[in-house]
Amino acid sequence: MSSSIRLAVIPGDGIGQEVVAEGLKVLAAVLPEGVKLETKEYDLGARRWHATGETLPDAELEQLKEHDAILLGAVGDPSVPSGVLERGLLLKLRFAFDHHVNLRPAKLYPNTASPLASDPVIDFVVVREGTEGPYVGNGGSLRTGTEHEVATEVSLNTAFGIERVVRDAYARAQARPRRKLTLVHKNNVLVHAGHLWKNIFDRVGREYPEVTTDYLHVDAATIFFVTQPERFDVIVTDNLFGDILTDLAAAVTGGIGLAASGNINPSGAFPPMFEPVHGSAPDIAGQAKADPTATVLSVAMLLQHLGYAEEAARIEAAVTADLAERTGPRATHEIGDAIAARVSA
Amino acid sequence: MSSSIRLAVIPGDGIGQEVVAEGLKVLAAVLPEGVKLETKEYDLGARRWHATGETLPDAELEQLKEHDAILLGAVGDPSVPSGVLERGLLLKLRFAFDHHVNLRPAKLYPNTASPLASDPVIDFVVVREGTEGPYVGNGGSLRTGTEHEVATEVSLNTAFGIERVVRDAYARAQARPRRKLTLVHKNNVLVHAGHLWKNIFDRVGREYPEVTTDYLHVDAATIFFVTQPERFDVIVTDNLFGDILTDLAAAVTGGIGLAASGNINPSGAFPPMFEPVHGSAPDIAGQAKADPTATVLSVAMLLQHLGYAEEAARIEAAVTADLAERTGPRATHEIGDAIAARVSA
Ligand SMILES: CC(C)[C@H](C(=O)O)[C@@H](O)C(=O)O
Ligand SMILES: CC(C)[C@H](C(=O)O)[C@@H](O)C(=O)O
Known about the structure:
The structure is a homodimer. By secondary structure, chain A is α/β, with parallel strands linked by helices. Chain A has helices at residues 15-30, 46-52, 58-65, 84-96, 159-174, 191-205, 218-227, 239-252, 293-306, 309-325, 332-344; strands spanning 4-12, 36-41, 69-74, 101-107, 123-129, 133-142, 150-158, 180-185, 212-217, 234-237, 260-264, 273-276.
């Protein structure tokens, strides 16, 4: 915990701009008097790419390193070819900053309708590996565009990379009341990567005798997400399975409008990045229709990570209260105002 | 349509035995007088592996080729290391018989509780590619068991392999009233494989002007499975995404006890294999608790495929009626008896 926060802000595209404004509003409202907040905005995303062809120039990557944390809204637009901003900006950041812990809580808040009929209690966190697996960008295409094209994608998995994220997940499970950790993979088909994950999971588990462990194939895990989400406490999984499972988790907890995430390098070598799980939603951009709650909760994760646990808890409580009392639809800034008022009260 | 059916039967492990017995009961009941049914049972699965170390010997693979179709119950047991039977038996069969169309209908039957609160209308079919992608078994491990281990899994994708399954999916979409086809992939991250899929999907689509098309990333698709399953008609997707999505589809349509599937090589070069999507469920094996309906519906798919459309429709109708009238829990054979009675009535 420092008495100043140097925050890099990447509003990005579409609703990203709108939700980040509310996130910053709540951040300013919750911070104690003595803490100085310095923000610097970076113009990255579809607009920038159209204007200059750049996604994330090295000079800006260097500047981002000089911050304590990054807050990102959302990036992407249908006018940009699929993959350009994802690989050139979002994934470039995750890999350059070695953000191997991609943290995604899934919590069903009161007065929030889950699409599930069982009215379940959902409160788990997915620790998604962020720097390996099928996301490494190790693919290629031969005879591109012909009827003989062959395209590959290589999933790369290392003992080093798996062990560090598995350790992080065990530590988190140990610190939670239920102390349960589930590994999700597909080790009956992806036998080499899957067995490496399972072996490390079992070995590290011997150091955490109080943590109950479980293994599920990814296909079976999706079934339990809708039939028995209560069974999960902490989940650790590979990059691609984590991507899929956390969108599903967002859906069963009432939608992507509430799902927050953090991309963390626990070594502290590079700044962490916090962002809502949702995308730029160009269809509703500029209409004040976006729910900024996921960004506000991402700000809470950011504060928690920087050591402002009390402030993070205040945001969590404010969001819970705000959701509990909400009735009709509200504009983006109305939601931000309401939460900001609660945290500063 | 032939006037005899040579059927290879692989009951397998756990509840596989029990559900296959009911599937065969219904098959015998529905077949017209003149059709001769010859079945030959193959003892493959966990028991066989424990006894002999064999998963699918070449001699038996050759014999299986001499049949019109294969009916499989379920294979697997916790006593067998993960991957042995999957790669050595199930996937060996899919690859040896080039079962590139893995067909998995998702239908919410009347009087069947979906875990979704919205009481949705669900009636779509997933055309899962069955012989490529991350399932090819092209992986390896270096420095196995050390802290420097590296494990890879290669997803292999060919224009040839994708085009044939995409064509199959368009033809199916064209033949359905809604004529809608959704491609699911992750082409913003797995850019090489994803773009190959997308390019072929778009190109073949120009031959089907009446089919409405759509593209979804796999993570977004899982959201729609629980928030808006009505939006799907036919889905075409890669092997791994299809595995995940069809378990989720089974869950939202009231459970894996009803999900049928077919592994098909439309060229006819090798016999198709039909099987329930569920596993061997050793926890309830031998207790007459398993629901044989998924196997019975797999028998209907088998008949449809062999040209017995009317008989297939009779099974579908019998299952629908049986589900509509069910009240309390019934034993495995009671369900089989009830459906058999309806189809022969
Ligand atoms: C936009 C995309 C690269 C990203 C991912 O696949 O990780 C997103 O879906 C996410 O979950 O953060
Ligand atoms: C058992 C396993 C190899 C198989 C798969 O992953 O395809 C199963 O999950 C399925 O969906 O048929």
